[in-house]
Amino acid sequence: MEWLRKYIEKVRVKSKPFLAFQIEPTSRCQLKCVMCPRTVFPDEWVNGDMPLLAYKNISKFFHLVENVHLQGWGEPLLHPELPNMVAIAKAESCKASLTTNGMFLTRNMSEELIKKCLDTIVISIAGAMRETHENIRCGSHFEQIIDNIRTLANLKLKMRSKTPKIVLSFLMTKTNIKELPETVILAKDSGINEFVATNLDYTPTEALDDLKAFSCNQADFEFQNCLDAARIRAEKIKLPFRFYPLEMEEVIMCEMNPLQIVFISFDGCLSPCVYLNMTKRGMIPRIFCGKQYEIERQCFGNVGEYDFMEIWNREDYRRVRGFYTKRMSVYRKAFYLIDAFQSQNDAPAVFEKMEIMLRENPLPSVCHTCYKAYSI
Questions:
Q1: pLDDT tens track for 40-73
Q2: Are residues 291 and 319 both part of a single domain?
Q3: In the chain, which residues have pLDDT < 70?
């Protein structure tokens, strides 16, 4: 029952109304990762950079935000003004973070990001060995990324900076999960501060859906052993380790939290999350547990044309958030019911009632077939 208490505390409004603005500096990328929609739909993909002026206009609302995360479907470090984007966020008392493939994390770039006081940098990897990683993240150079990570870690020491926190993000697939425990050791030796094992949570084709390590039913025994071994190894070497489950379970609200997080694409479209706002012409296809679905791009307004708060308060945007408001209300009621009980034996009845209430308050249609809504 304690997990429920912690979850509700986590999503309560803090000192600022928004937990994060996720902003896409660019939809361009030099890699051709096998799972990326840019690779799958090259002729339909729209490449572009967010103008710095547009970013500055968005920054007028940074006083409402705790964290500005610079990431979308492209590689952030390709944007020529990326360090300045970090500085603008920090000037508004926001935490600033980004996710990168690590290829452009040169010594000069690392120095700039340290000087600009970047709080967190997440570096993506897909294996403990060069061949495994490069077969998934095509065009990437494994040794160069590891060298870049070590350079960043050493520069932090030299410049006496505690930031940025360096997070290594390992994408779990059927082809690389056996290397997960070994990658934990590599991470520790490279100066990583935290390790995260993530899932292939968006799959545009059946072949890519088959690549995922997690299951729509029961987790694969061998894959679960690999994940457990990595977790135990991380504990032994005292490396903070987070992981996503290998078995689906519907959550009240996915970690994208549309009540307190927004995503803004490079062209200014405001939406609840990156999975609903892909700069691709036409419909957005997705495979969900073996079945194909298509959704329209969810753009509730362009911040280049309308005031941010005007878009946020539009009826259609409020309607989507309303689904999650109701679902959170269900869990808060359950939370208070559990608090009222003195015996653990009463908990099953509460959770049964909660499940019924959730069925009566389903996910929005655009989220129902998204893996993120099922803890993945």
A1: 999 999 999 999 999 999 999 999 999 999 999 9
A2: no
A3: 1-14, 334-347, 350
Q: Provide the 10 A C-beta neighbour count for residue 51.
A: 14
What is the reported pTM?
A: 0.93
Q: Which two tokens stand for residue 234?
A: 């991380």
How high is the pLDDT of residue 358?
A: 78
Return the structure tokens found at 231. Answer: 């977790």
Paired residues of 247 in beta bridges? 215
Encode 33-87 in three state secondary structure.
Answer: CCCCHHHHCCCCECCCECCHHHHHHHHCCHHHEEEEEECCCCCHHHCCCHHHHHH
With beta carbons less than 8 A apart as the criterion, state whether 294 and 285 touch.
yes
Asked if residue 356 and residue 249 are part of one domain, the reply reads no
* C-alpha dist (Å) from residue 327 to 9, 16, 253: 15, 22, 8
Domain range for 355 is 315-374
Assess whether 216 and 340 both reside in one domain.
Answer: no
Task: Read off the CATH number of the domain in which 248 is found.
Answer: 3.20.20.70
CB 172 within 8 A of CB 128: no
What is the dihedral sign for C-alpha 161, 181, 98, 30?
A: positive
DSSP three-state, residue 101: coil
**Structural domain count of the chain:** 2
Do you find a cis peptide bond into 42, omega within 30 degrees of 0? Answer: no
SS3 195: strand
Handedness of CA 252, 258, 260, 266 (dihedral sign): positive
109 and 199 fall within a common domain:
yes
Please check whether residues 139 and 205 belong to one and the same domain: yes
Based on its alpha-carbon atoms, the radius of gyration of the chain, rounded to whole angstroms, reads 21
CB 36 within 8 A of CB 29: yes
